[in-house]
Structures are given as C-alpha cells and as structure tokens.
From TrEMBL:
Substrate binds at residue 161. The keyword Metal-binding does not apply. The gene is sucD. Residues 4-100 form the CoA-binding domain. This is Succinate--CoA ligase [ADP-forming] subunit alpha. One of its GO terms (biological process) is tricarboxylic acid cycle. The active site is at residue 247.
Length: 291
C-alpha cells in the first residue's frame, strides 16, 4: 500500500528523449517502475530506450493505459506540457523541471482546478514521488531506502534523500518531494491527509523550510485531522533575513516565515521538531521502535 503511486502505476515521460528524460527514464526502469512510453510530438512513432514515443499525452494514455506522467521538459515549455496532461485527465502529473516561472505554475495550477481537479500535480522543481519496492516517478534514488511504514513529505530534494537513507532500516510507504517553489501543485497538507488515510503508513516525517506559511498551516491541519505521530525538520535556522536560500519560496520577511516561528507552531500541536536532519531521524526512530 502507498499513496498516489503503487506497483500498478503506469508511467509515461514527457520529454523522455531529452538528456535528463533519457537518464532518469533509465533509472526509473532499473528501479522496477512500470515506464510504458514517452511523449515528444516531433518523434511520435519512434522508440526510445525500447519504449514507444507518442505525439500527445492523450494518445499515450489511450495506447498504454498510463496513469502517471513525469515531466522533463525545459522551463519555457513546462506550462504547455502540464496543461496537455490536464486536458488528457492524467491522474498524476509529476513536474521535475526547475526554473519554471511562477506565473506559469500559477496558471497551470489554476487550470487544473478549473478542469475539476482531475489531475494531481506534484511540483514543479521537485524530486518526484517514490514508493520503495513498488514504483518510482522522478529522480529520487531507488536504492537508498527500503519499503516500510513511514510516510515522508518534503520541500527539499536532498533532505528527502537524507531522511530516507537515515531511516532505511525502518523504510517508507511513500516519499513525496513537493518542491520548494512559491506555487506548487501538492502541499504538505495534501500529503498529510493522504498519509493519515493510508493504512500502510504508521508515522509521518515532514520537512519544511523558511519562507511562506505552509508549515504553520500544516500545523493547524495536524492539530485537527492527524492522529498519527509526526516529526518535522525546518531548514533555514541560520538564514539571514531577506536572503533567498536555494528555493524561490524560501525567503524570510520580518518574523514571518522564520524557522523558529515554524518550529514553535509545529511543537505547539505536538509535532516533535529536530534541530538537524539527523536528530529528526532519531526522533522518528524512537517512535518506530516504541510501536
């Protein structure tokens, strides 16, 4: 059992024939994920990495039964690629591309809502989603952890990998990298709700960072709706005010969006917050050992 991505998921790759698309298609296939084709209008009817290339997402879905798309296209073309997946009613669209203009992300997110929210968007600027032992859609390394009963939702790709590795002895049901841009398709709250409802997830790790109020809103949601234990880490305790740190959404203004404010909001509702990623892993290890 997992959230959103299972062993039965059939994946297509938009931009499969490009350099990044090719590399990560190979990695997804090597991990055992069911990648069934790619999309490139200019190369429709050919094969790439032994897989058929289709002209449109709709055609790929009709021919393969795909229910997940992973987007590896340049930023200038990402909006159109995601809107194409939305028009085809692709259930899950994982947008890996970094550097997508915020107004483009806003536009395709609003487009998905206007079309009835039939397409869940993860990203952009994210590592994707992995259900260890079942499937892998994106760039999360497949060999750093095992299948287990921890759920993970994270704004940071590298911290996703670190926590997955440090808790590999317990393993994960699903790890979701939601991305650190100011506008993203899937939020901490979306993942918290899914993990709360997933019978195969016993506890949740949440990784946030400075900037915005996503973690404060997640804290309020946890207080009302999440009964499973949650541990968290908030990146950016040493970030100077007004300085963008890595992610476009990670900028602090005054007291709003600081790591300390987020930590206090989370601890107030019973979430244990680690001072470092390794301490966060230790807190989760204590919870799992006590079960």
């Amino acid at each position: 059992m997992a959230i959103w991505l299972t062993e039965n998921s059939k994946i297509i790759v938009q931009g499969m024939t490009g350099g990044e698309g090719t590399k990560h298609t190979r990695r997804m296939l090597a991990s055992g994920a069911r990648v069934v084709g790619g999309v490139n209008a200019r190369k429709a009817g050919t094969t790439h990495e032994g897989l058929p290339v289709f002209g449109t997402v709709k055609e790929a879905m009709e021919q393969t039964g795909a229910d997940v798309s992973v987007v590896f296209v340049p930023p200038a073309f990402t909006k159109d690629a995601v809107k194409e997946a939305i028009d085809a009613e692709m259930p899950l669209c994982v947008v890996i591309t970094e550097g997508v203009p915020v107004h483009d992300s806003t536009e395709f997110w609003a487009y998905a809502v206007a079309k009835g929210n039939k397409t869940r968007i993860i990203g952009p600027n994210c590592p994707g989603i992995a259900s260890p032992g079942a499937s892998n859609a994106g760039i999360i390394p497949a060999d750093i952890t095992t299948a287990g009963r921890i759920g993970l939702v994270s704004k940071s790709g590298t911290l996703t990998y670190q926590l997955m590795y440090e808790l590999r002895d317990f393993g994960f049901s699903t790890a979701v990298g939601i991305g650190g841009d100011p506008v993203i398709g899937t939020t901490h709250i979306d993942a918290l709700q899914a993990f709360q409802e997933d019978p195969a997830t016993d506890a949740i790790v949440m990784i946030g960072e400075i900037g915005g109020d996503a973690e404060e809103r997640a804290a309020a949601y946890i207080e009302q709706h999440v009964s499973k234990p949650v541990v968290a880490y908030v990146a950016g305790f040493t970030a100077p005010e007004g300085k963008t740190m890595g992610h476009a959404g990670a900028i602090v203004s005054g007291s709003a969006g600081t790591a300390q404010a987020k930590k206090e909001a989370l601890e107030k509702v019973g979430v244990r917050v680690g001072k470092t990623p390794s301490e966060t892993a230790r807190l989760m290890r204590e919870i799992m050992q006590a079960r």
